[in-house]
Design goal:
Aldehyde Dehydrogenase, Chain A, domain 1, seven-stranded parallel sheet, 19% strand, globular
Length: 431
């Protein structure tokens, strides 16, 4: 056997060992007290700050290698850590700690005519497998949400962030050990060989749920090959429709925020749909603001006719490929539509089921949009940038699901639990 084959055999054996340990830990995690979980999370938050020098040094290694290899700007932005970002991550950990413990909650109790009392008790899912790319903050987000919800976790990050992920995983493991969390509850796979992903996806006997975080290629690989259930988000093609009754100043500000505040993330705006009745007045004002941030605007014929006389704007004719595209950069597509119905049809055809918004002063139009748009998060008069676990009061998220089972939108602690039926009797037998 070659050295390469021996190394891979050893890596596969190590993966199985860690999966077994996580499974064993998950049975004990279900009984961990809320105080024990919160102590672990407080330790993690404090250690992120205390050990930031080592974390940032590891992150610099990853960033330098990724930049040298030609990684695109969106992924580089997601990869980069800073003291400010670490402070924000540490703060989010404390926000998760402050949430009610979902495990053990009893709900929907009732008494049947035969005297049986039955209801549901919330329980952890078991072992969560996370396969993710680029963003090292995912190591912390997923770990703390799994710990809070009583689940064990197996983390497998991408090659481009291996030093950052390894440093953060060690912070988590050390912090939870001091809090008395069962050994093996947090596992990190250091080997970045893609073949191990294929093995991980077949470990149904150990892993109860897989969550992929990354590009369309990774998500398709996981969805197509996993032997266990998958919760995935996929891409976020986000539209904002400016209705004919929209408050123009407010609509300019919302669109600017949705596109510019952080353009490299999945909830950033991609396509602006503008009602023809308001386009002549609205588009020049919105485009002037977007131009201040250097946004390149890909315009359909009617939008181009309105804006082409403005030499300061970065305009391009829109192509078919611009509709349904997640730009992840300072680029937005613009289309003029004749009605709310046309906007709804466009979103149905090109949306990805992530986040969609309408800007309108008409209650009926807002309610039609909220009722008819099929997406995880649907907004009336607000920026799509709020689609985020922290912004939704969940503390953090393990991902944003664009599918309908078993959860949708930002996934927090409650979405990482299931339930069991509990039944109290007094000697009943079935007739």
């Amino acid at each position: 056997m070659s050295k390469g084959a021996e190394k891979m055999k050893s890596a596969k054996a190590e993966l199985e060992e860690k999966a077994k340990a996580a499974k064993a830990a998950s049975r004990r995690m279900a009984d961990l007290s809320a105080e024990g979980k919160n102590k672990a999370l407080h330790n993690i938050s404090a250690d992120i700050v205390a050990k930031q020098k080592a974390i940032l040094a590891a992150n610099q290694l990853d960033y330098h290698e990724a930049h040298s290899s030609g990684m695109n700007a969106a992924m580089l932005d997601g990869l980069m850590l800073s003291p400010e970002r670490l402070e924000a991550i540490a703060s989010d950990v404390l926000a998760v700690a402050a949430l009610p413990d979902p495990v053990g909650e009893v709900f929907e109790m009732r008494t049947l005519p035969n005297g049986l009392q039955l209801g549901k008790r919330r329980v952890p899912l078991g072992v969560i497998g996370a396969i993710y790319e680029s963003r090292p903050n995912v190591t912390i987000d997923i770990s703390v949400l799994c710990l809070k919800s009583g689940n064990a976790i197996i983390l497998r990050g991408g090659r481009e962030a291996v030093h950052s992920n390894s440093a953060l995983a060690k912070v988590v493991q050390d912090a939870v050990t001091r809090a008395g969390v069962p050994d093996g509850a947090v596992q990190f796979i250091e080997n970045t060989d893609r073949a191990l992903v294929d093995d991980m996806l077949q470990m149904r006997q150990y892993i109860d749920l897989i969550i992929p975080r990354g590009g369309a290629g990774l998500i398709k690989l996981v969805r197509d090959n996993a032997a266990m259930p998958v919760v995935a988000g996929g891409i976020g093609v986000c539209h904002t429709y400016v209705d004919k009754s929209a408050d123009i100043d407010r609509a300019v500000a919302i669109v600017f925020n949705a596109k510019v505040q952080r353009p490299t993330v999945c909830n950033a705006l991609d396509t602006i749909l503008v009602h023809a009745d308001i386009a002549q007045k609205y588009l020049p004002l919105a485009a002037a603001e977007l131009a201040k941030a250097g946004v390149e605007m890909h315009c359909d014929e009617r939008a181009m006719a309105i804006l082409k006389s403005k030499p300061s704007l970065k305009l391009k004719p829109a192509t078919d490929e611009d509709w349904g595209k997640e730009f992840l950069s300072l680029v937005a597509a613009i289309k003029v539509v004749d009605s709310l119905d046309e906007a709804l049809e466009h979103i149905e055809r090109y949306g990805s089921g992530h986040s969609e918004a309408i800007l309108t002063e008409e209650y009926g139009a807002a309610m039609r949009f909220l009722n008819e748009v099929d997406a995880a998060c649907v907004y009336a008069n607000a920026s799509t940038r709020f689609t985020d676990g922290s912004q939704f009061g969940l503390g953090a998220e393990v991902g944003i699901s664009t599918q309908k089972f078993h959860a949708r939108g930002p996934l927090g602690v409650r979405e990482l639990t299931s339930y069991k039926w509990i039944i109290f009797g007094s000697g009943q037998v079935r007739p």
